[in-house]
């Protein structure tokens, strides 16, 4: 596969479309994710955001279009890869609905995430050779580093089933980081979180970008979080691209306002004229 034209581009989606029966869920969507940026997909429910995520992680196959991935040693079309190969290329994902092993500890969930970086074979594992022992030490060291990075020390030996929802979200984030990704896909990371937990999530995302140098592709509804952490935003509606730019540019775009609130005329009709007082109800 040829290298994306811009060397700063880590992932390049071109003319993606996917049809489920008679429904065109994504229609001719194109965008780039640059190295070291936080790129966010926004839009109302049913806009096609998670479908795009599922195309990248190979849960779905596009009807048309390509997704070029610029790896450190090779460049591939993700649409030609099997789903189990995606993580090995350097792409990790979290889910809107948390997917953890509830009856395993936080540490063991993170070590499961390290499985993609497995360095030894079955027979060596069964014999527990010195090479296997060294690999286990490296895996444990990486997991402990992520636990410290995300302030999970207090929960490291706790079963996931006994954790608050907000902590589980961070654990799922930690497991994804244990795969040492170059691109992290976050599917609605603030979903189900309170205001304080959402602020913490913004902090983690910024640290992942700035301290770990990991690019982030995010689907999110919370516009305060989007504005705080995103370098660029792609707005979608009914499977199509509406606007692309900075968070401020996209939020001010008439098509985005209409997608969220109705037509411009309808929004204008809701505004009370300056200086007018609200109507008083009859007593």
Automatic annotation (TrEMBL):
Residues 11-263 form the ABC transporter domain. SUPFAM superfamilies: P-loop containing nucleoside triphosphate hydrolases. One of its GO terms (molecular function) is ATP binding. It comes from the Bacteria. One of its GO terms (cellular component) is plasma membrane. Keywords: ATP-binding, Cell membrane, Membrane, Nucleotide-binding, Transport. This is ABC transporter ATP-binding protein. It comes from Simplicispira hankyongi. The lineage of its organism: Bacteria, Pseudomonadati, Pseudomonadota, Betaproteobacteria, Burkholderiales.
């Amino acid at each position: 596969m040829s290298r994306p034209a811009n060397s700063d581009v880590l992932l390049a989606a071109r003319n993606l479309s996917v049809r489920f029966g008679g429904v065109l869920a994504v229609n001719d969507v194109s965008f780039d994710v640059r190295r070291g940026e936080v790129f966010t997909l926004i839009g109302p429910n049913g806009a096609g955001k998670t479908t795009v995520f599922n195309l990248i992680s190979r849960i779905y196959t596009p009807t048309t279009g390509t997704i070029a991935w610029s790896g450190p040693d090779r460049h591939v079309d993700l649409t030609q890869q099997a789903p189990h190969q995606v993580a090995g290329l350097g792409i990790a994902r979290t889910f809107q609905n948390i997917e953890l092993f509830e009856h395993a500890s936080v540490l063991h969930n993170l070590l499961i995430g390290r499985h993609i970086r497995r360095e030894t074979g079955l027979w060596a594992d069964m014999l527990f050779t010195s090479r296997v022992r060294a690999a286990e030490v490296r895996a444990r060291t990486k997991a402990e580093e992520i636990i410290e990075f995300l302030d999970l020390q207090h929960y490291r030996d706790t079963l996931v089933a006994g954790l608050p929802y907000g902590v589980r979200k961070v654990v799922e984030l930690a497991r994804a980081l244990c795969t040492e990704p170059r691109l992290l896909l976050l599917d609605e990371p603030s979903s189900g979180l309170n205001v304080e937990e959402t602020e913490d999530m913004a902090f983690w995302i910024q640290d992942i970008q700035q301290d770990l140098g990991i690019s982030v592709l995010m689907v999110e509804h919370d516009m305060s979080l989007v504005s705080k952490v995103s370098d660029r935003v792609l707005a979608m509606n009914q499977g199509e691209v509406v606007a692309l730019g900075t968070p401020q540019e996209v939020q001010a775009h008439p098509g985005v306002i209409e997608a969220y609130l109705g037509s411009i005329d309808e929004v204008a009709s809701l505004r009370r004229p300056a200086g007018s007082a609200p109507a008083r109800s009859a007593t």
